[in-house]
Amino acid sequence: MTDASKLPAAPEGVAHPRTIRSFVRRAGRTTTGQARAFTDIGPAVLLPYQAAPLDFHAAFGRDAPVILEIGFGMGEATAHIAGLMPEKNFLCCEVHEPGVGALLKRIGEQGLGNIRILQHDAVEALEHMLPEHSLAGVHIFFPDPWHKLRHNKRRLIQPPLVARLASRLAPGAYLHCATDWEPYAQQMLQVLAAEPQLVNTAADYAPKPHYRPLTKFENRGLKLGHGVWDLVFHKR
Fold first, then answer.
1. Domain coordinates in residue numbering, the chain
2. Cα–chain center distance at 40
3. Measured between alpha carbons, how far is 144 from 152 in angstroms, rounded to an integer?
4. Does domain 46-235 have CATH number 2.60.40.1180?
5. Distance between alpha carbon 60 and the CA centroid of its chain, in Å?
């Protein structure tokens, strides 16, 4: 594991968030290694929620294009992409504590200095912390598909959120969504195509961008014949 002292120092005023007021964490057990990562890596990487615009330079200690990731699961793809793109900063939102711990552990093991984690509801953070035209990209990979028809309204990709995301993108920036549930892919395509601030980079679904890795879960699904759909839209 990389020595935590080699990671960037925690920005002034940044502390481990103790409570999450707007979201109920999913059940799950934090391992000993993940808990240690909260202590060793967390102070340099975890950002507190604030109802005010985030100072990206203060948060990352440098000026660089910022990619927002919403819901990174256990952080496997996040760490891979951040390693491929050291010239970019990654602001990653996730409320599931074992997932946050797992990504912190990966950050320590791989010595990644370009990730910051916001353990808070991404929708609320988007509303209050991210200024318009401030993002170079947004990643939303495999959000909960809410399979049952009566639960479809709970899906993350809905017109109001997409409009807000688009307003936070700089001109020419991108929004990349991926799902392994075809009905959700169809809804995503419909919602994204209807947003006037965005334009599709493909006729419908995009080829998988080189930077998004195949996770173990995704590989298992592909071997079983399950599809995966990527959608990449640019800000006009």
1. 46-235
2. 22
3. 10
4. no
5. 16
Model pTM score? 0.88
Residue with structure tokens 């481990």? Answer: 16
Q: The dihedral of CA 11, 12, 18, 23: what is its sign?
A: negative
Mean pLDDT, the chain, integer: 90
Q: Tell me the pLDDT band of 226, cut-offs 50, 70 and 90.
A: confident
What is the pLDDT averaged over residues 111-137? 97
Q: Which residues pair with 229 in a beta bridge?
A: 179
The residue written with tokens 């990709």 in the block is 157
Q: Which residues pair with 68 in a beta bridge?
A: 91, 138
Catalytically active residues, by annotation? 144
At residue 48, the pLDDT reads: 97
What was the pLDDT predicted at 218?
82
Mode of pairing for the β-strands spanning 229-235 and 169-179: antiparallel
